[in-house]
Write a structure and sequence with these properties.
single chain; 429 residues; Peroxisomal Thiolase, Chain A, domain 1; 2 domains; ten-stranded mixed sheet
Length: 429
């Protein structure tokens, strides 16, 4: 099954979630429909009074300890000791999300190991465990070095742990472009499949919810200091003051359409193009005019053979930071509003929080659910829109109508911008 260009059509054919708004597709769908957030009061350093007190917590899991023997997770997942001993906290979440994906996509051990299945991952590693292991080294005078210190802490940890666990023999690669990481992974997975190099690729993003991974952003005043879980994350609102951190994992199967259909796998959405561009502006602050993101959106539309008027819904990157949201507002005006296009826009980070490198995997999964189930997420927690958002279509409630074609935006440090295009799956086209 090929597109008009002659290349294979590519779809999302499996999902898995461990997130603040649900630990499976059913829970995530319900939260999106009801605009139910996943935020709670959270102590980043127990016993310390810190300025940031809210996070997107992961329910049913407890990974606060540095040793896996003290972790707790739902009884429906069982893992051997040898699998757990080399994992960081977010590695456990990733395993659970991948187990969901495998069941959802009807993958067999033989397919996972056939050489036509790849694995693309993103995470920042685990500075939480790295700190623990470095302290052990220092306190022992250099005599004690944990044997799993490297593979459980650095940014490639998901590749190291997941590829052998599932005997994956296809392409295995990690992506490190900050909050655009899993968007890049999805885009390059699309290209790999279209070029015939792989039949399917698991894209997995995961992050720790710990003070070294999350609270470090407070140093650049990027985290919300609002103590109210109901209003701490409010993208596009004039009173936004920063993002709410979260962790967990999200997994998607990106696959050639004919392969997914032959197996009877669910088809959530078709991936029909992507674009990327850099701001070339700052290592940490988005270009105020949004020029890089505007270029990424235009390139994604061109790759998909679409115009701004074809897009029904934009799942925005908007994290709820003053400068970041404003940059995206200006980029959307540039590409859409000024061309007479008014797609529905929302940022689901108002519900989930900002999941850093896994954000795009989580949000693309949310978009896939919206397409499959026929609803469009509204903009939660928006009370007083930013004056520059005037003219943008930001519905305060979820719409019962299908989103149509979706543009999904992601941006990361250094000015990395990625836009993905998803459309409803129609087998006969």
């Amino acid at each position: 099954m090929t597109s008009p260009s002659g290349m294979p059509r590519v779809v999302i054919s499996g999902l898995g979630f461990i997130s603040s708004i649900g630990n499976d597709a059913v829970g995530v769908t319900q939260s999106l429909r009801e605009l139910r957030h996943g935020f709670e009061p959270h102590e980043f350093l127990p016993g310390r009074q810190l300025e940031v007190t809210v996070a997107g917590t992961i329910k049913e899991f407890d990974t606060r300890a540095t040793h896996f023997s003290e972790w707790r997770w739902p009884a429906r997942y069982t893992f051997e000791r040898d699998v757990l001993r080399s994992l960081p906290p977010h590695g456990l979440h990733a395993l659970c999300a991948v187990e969901q994906l495998i069941a959802d996509a009807r993958l067999t051990p033989e397919l996972l190991a056939d050489g036509d299945t790849g694995l693309f991952t993103s995470s920042a590693g685990s500075p939480f465990l790295q700190r623990e292991y470095l302290n052990q080294f220092i306190e022992s005078g250099g005599m004690r070095v944990h044997p799993m210190a490297v593979v459980s802490t650095i940014s490639g940890t998901l590749n190291f742990n997941l590829a052998p666990r599932y005997h994956i023999k296809g392409a295995v690669c990690g992506f490190v472009s900050a909050c655009a990481s899993t968007a890049h992974a999805i885009g390059y997975a699309l290209d790999e499949i279209r070029l015939g190099r792989q039949r399917r690729i698991l894209v997995v993003g995961a992050e720790d919810l710990t003070w070294p991974s999350t609270y470090s952003f407070h140093g650049m005043r990027a985290l919300s200091r609002n103590p109210d879980p109901a209003t701490a994350s409010r993208p596009f609102d004039r009173h936004r003051d920063g993002f709410v951190g979260t962790g967990g994992a999200a997994a998607l199967l990106i696959e050639a359409a004919d392969s997914a259909q032959a197996r009877g796998a669910p088809v959530y959405a078709e991936l029909c193009g992507w674009g990327q561009a850099s701001d070339g502006h700052s290592m940490a602050i988005a270009d105020p005019a949004g020029r890089g993101l505007a270029s990424a959106m235009r390139r994604a539309l061109k790759a998909a053979g679409l115009t701004p008027g074809d897009i029904g819904y934009i799942n925005a990157h908007a994290t709820s930071t003053p400068l970041g949201d404003l940059s995206e507002i200006r980029a959307i005006h540039n590409v859409f509003t000024q061309q007479g296009a008014h797609p529905v826009i929302s940022s689901t980070k108002a519900l989930t929080g900002h999941a850093l490198s896994m954000a795009a995997a989580l949000e693309t999964g949310c978009c896939a659910l919206a397409l499959r189930e026929g609803f469009t997420p509204g903009q939660a927690h928006l009370v007083n829109p930013d004056p520059e958002a005037d003219g943008l279509n930001l519905p305060p409630t979820t719409l019962s109508s299908a989103p149509g074609i979706i543009l999904k935006n992601s941006s990361g440090f250094g000015g990395s911008n990625v836009s993905l295009v998803l459309r409803p799956w129609t087998a006969g086209e």
